[in-house]
Design goal:
The protein has about 550 residues and is α+β, with helices and mostly antiparallel strands. The protein has helices at about 10-15, 70-80, 100-110, 120-155, 160-170, 190, 195-210, 255-295, 300-310, 335-345, 370-385, 410-425, 440-445, 450-465, 470-485, 490-495, 500-515, 520-540, and strands at about 10, 25, 35, 40, 55-60, 85-90, 110-115, 175-180, 185, 215-220, 220-230, 240-245, 315-325, 350-355, 360-365, 395-400, 435. Helix 4 packs antiparallel against helix 5 and helix 15 packs across helix 16 (about 490-495).
Length: about 550
């Protein structure tokens, strides 16, 4: 794990202070930019028990004038404690810094400074700590200013991309946010990365949230990043976050502090936005429901409500699609609405929806009718990805009505989609997507009016079965018989009946109807009558 580039007093800067004039860095050149938070003067041989990380330790060497071996051992202890470095005054109590001490310091890359005998430690402490306090106050001023700017943007109700642009300007690096609706916002990266690359970046950052500064890879190039998880209400299956990626300038400690402070305020803002969206979604859900069932009669009402939901329904083609899920995939309507939002982002149109009669209903809105098949393909792919299980057929189907160009005809498209669903289930049409145009002969039967002539025709062909005591059993047997291509054995297996039982039923049906079930013309007319009967039952005839 990497550490932040921190602003503050460093070994390099310490050597430039006037009280340390003439001091030299003997070892640890590569760590001369290590930060110093405090100065400690050695008053006892066991000082390693009283030091803290990022302290700089100074000694006159008096405690070790007769035992420099202990001074060498002290280097290991100070290094293990995270001490930034050590200054040793020479030509006072020890003539030179022992070579074996320097050798060990080089092995550890531990900074050791040779301090001239005339140096006054109290002056070093005073000047160094003034520098430390100045740097820390500068951090606080910078952080305070950034937080104030961010709060001002929140009060002005800026959009999330605008808020992130403000943070990017403060820090000088790109910002990425995954909100509570699992929507990725990355103003700078979205301009240069492909959608698949943004998706991969999101997965990478989600795994890095909360573990400090780490390294990520984008297009085979490594970058440092800092990712802070956002606190959400309730249980969610992903980790929302705000992240900064070091592409332009080094991430500093104050940048880290900025993200930490901003994350808490952003969490509150996103929580409020999510709550508002849920309320809006409730009304949108009702609006779509009224559209598909035809409860809205006023064009003014439609225009007013569509505008409030930022829906453009002018000069559009519409198609109603029913999504039938076995066992259920979306926990509630909110989860379904999030799915629709993703579909809108991926397609060239708008997808809204509602729940109706224990099914999810989608309304596709496009400028050109030719765009609808592509939208259905996108939806099918997305649903398949959600519900697909290892080695199993996806347990879903999409049923579509015909496309219409008038809002008043959306109800008709919905009724057709519902009809498609009923017909498809009855006739075991298993294609993932079944449109009204796929019904073929059922289209003709569906549009036949419920006239006395049609009723007379049905009575003439299947009337005797309707009057029979076991009418339901006979109709079921015929339905399965024709679906199994008139295979008696397969019919018996499907109905879990004995072979001879099915033979008896078929003979009884032939007798009642006065037809030969081996006669192709008679069977064709019987099948049409059965389909017409089912269609009229569906239509309430």
């Amino acid at each position: 794990m990497s550490t932040f580039h921190k602003r503050g007093l460093t070994i390099e800067r310490l050597l430039e202070l006037e009280p340390l004039h003439g001091a030299q860095l003997i070892t640890g050149e590569q760590n001369k930019r290590n930060r110093i938070s405090r100065i400690n003067i050695m008053g006892s041989p066991d000082i390693d028990q009283f030091v803290r990380p990022e302290e700089f330790v100074m000694t006159t060497g008096y405690l070790f004038k007769d035992n420099t071996i202990h001074l060498k051992k002290l280097i290991d202890a100070l290094h293990d404690r995270g001490v930034t470095g050590m200054g040793i005054k020479v030509e006072r109590f020890i003539d030179v810094i022992p070579e074996d001490l320097l050798s060990r310091a080089r092995e550890l890359s531990f900074p050791v400074i040779e301090i001239r005998p005339q140096t006054i430690f109290s002056d070093v402490v005073r000047v160094a700590m003034e520098e430390v306090f100045y740097q820390e106050s500068e951090h606080l001023v910078t952080l305070y200013h950034r937080v104030q700017v961010f709060m001002d943007q929140l009060n002005r109700d800026h959009s999330l991309p605008d808020l992130l642009a403000g943070i990017e300007q403060m820090i000088g690096n790109p910002i990425v946010v995954l909100d509570f609706e699992e929507q990725l916002t990355a103003p700078l990266f979205e301009q240069v990365l492909e959608p698949k690359e943004c998706l991969h970046l999101n997965h990478t950052l989600e795994a890095k949230a909360g573990i400090g500064k780490t390294t990520i890879t984008i297009r085979d190039e490594s970058f440092q990043c800092y990712c802070v998880p956002l606190v959400s209400e309730g249980l969610i299956h992903f980790v929302p976050y705000i992240a900064c990626i070091e592409t332009n300038v080094d991430l500093t400690e104050v940048d880290c502090m900025t993200l930490d402070k901003v994350s808490s305020m952003l969490s509150i803002e996103l929580t409020n936005q999510t709550a508002r969206k849920r309320i809006e979604q409730k009304y949108l859900n009702q609006f779509v429901k009224e559209l598909v069932v035809g409860d809205i009669v006023s064009d003014y009402d439609i225009d007013l409500r569509a505008h409030s939901f930022d829906l453009d329904l002018k000069d559009k083609w519409f198609q109603t699609v029913i999504l039938d899920l076995e066992g259920g995939v979306f926990s509630d309507v909110t989860a379904f609405q999030l799915f629709l939002k993703k579909m809108t982002m991926q397609s060239h149109g708008q997808v809204v929806g509602t729940s109706l009669d224990k099914a999810f209903v989608m309304l596709l809105c496009v400028k050109q009718k030719a765009s609808i098949p592509n939208m259905l393909q996108i939806i099918e792919t997305a649903v398949n990805r959600i519900v697909k299980k290892d080695g199993q057929r996806p347990l879903y189907q999409l049923y579509g009505g015909r496309a219409v160009q008038d809002i008043a005809h959306i109800k008709q498209s919905f009724n057709e989609a519902y009809h498609v669903k009923t017909i498809a289930k009855h006739n075991q049409l298993t294609a993932p997507v079944v449109n009204y145009d796929d019904l073929h002969v059922y289209q003709l039967l569906y549009h036949l009016p419920q006239t006395p002539e049609v009723a007379h025709y049905l009575e003439e062909i299947i009337g005797p079965l309707r009057s029979a005591r076991n009418d339901a059993l006979y109709f079921e047997t015929l339905d399965v018989f024709f679906k199994n291509n008139k295979n008696v054995r397969a019919t018996a297996d499907t109905l879990y009946a004995h072979y001879n039982t099915i033979v008896y039923r078929l003979e009884k049906i032939s007798t009642l109807l006065g037809i030969d079930l081996q006669d192709a013309e008679a069977c064709l007319e019987l099948q049409l009558a059965l389909k017409l009967r089912f269609t009229h039952l569906f239509k309430g005839g």
